[in-house]
Amino acid sequence: MIKAIIFDFDGVIVESVDIKTKAFAELFEQERSEVVKKVIDYHLNNTGVSRYDKFRYIYKEILKRPLRDEEFQILCDKFADLVVSRVIDAPYVKGAIEFFKDYVPKKYKCFLVSATPQKEIKEILQKRHIAHFFSVIYGASTKKSHAVREILNEENIMPIDTVYVGDAMSDYLAAKDNVVNFIARINNNESIFNDIDCIKVKDLQNLNMVIENFNVLDLK
Helix, strand or coil for residue 35? Predict the structure, then answer.
């Protein structure tokens, strides 16, 4: 019986993936066009990975130059400046806010696990007036697998009673590492989950019905 739901944020609750894609393009717009394309491709193939890890990878593997601590901090600050207000104003994924209002906390206990920095994701949730729907909020630099493990242990919840809703490979792996059920939100990310055997949804309009199907399977 599903009792707990762990949500990713960008691309699952809010339509904000494109916002962050554009931010990466703006940050590296002074580089050659082919370099910018590699940066964007890397970002899109690794949604759900923290910007901290992405910046380090981009400098080491794409730009082939060292990333000084001062420059790293400037990148982080500029990225936050580019995205926070836009994410706060971004539209919800269809069905998301209705699900929270109808089923949380009356039916499900919900948690949020995001690659967005902890302070930033809390600010966004508070300004969107949805922070109260989540019992615990995890942001970077906590790894997603570790966050899921902490939720299960500290809340005394069994993996079989939990489902993770995400849109990135990092979400799927965090669920798999902890033997948690997984639902993939599909929106221009089909290739990521082509070979993954999991439930796939276009939006959250029928999320409760989808979760009920897990409960039916558990009873068989």
Answer: helix
Q: Assign domain 4-14+92-219 one CATH number from 3.50.50.60, 3.40.630.30, 3.40.50.1000, 3.10.180.10.
A: 3.40.50.1000
pLDDT along the chain (220 residues), means of 10: 96 96 96 96 90 97 97 96 96 98 96 96 98 97 96 96 96 97 95 93 96 66
Beta bridge partners of 138: 113
Measure the CA–CA gap between 159 and 88, rounded to whole angstroms.
31
How far is C-alpha 29 from the chain's CA centre? 25
Spans of all domains in the chain: 4-14+92-219, 17-89
DSSP string, 72-119: HHHHHHHHHHHHHHHHHHSPBPTTHHHHHHHHTTTT-EEEEEEEEEHH
Query: pTM higher than 0.90 for the full model?
Result: yes
Phi, psi of 210 (to 5 degrees): -65, -45
69's CB contacts (< 8 A; 6+ apart) are none
Question: Within 10 Å of residue 105's Cβ, how many Cβ atoms?
Answer: 12
Helix axes 17-27, 33-45, angle to 10 degrees: 150
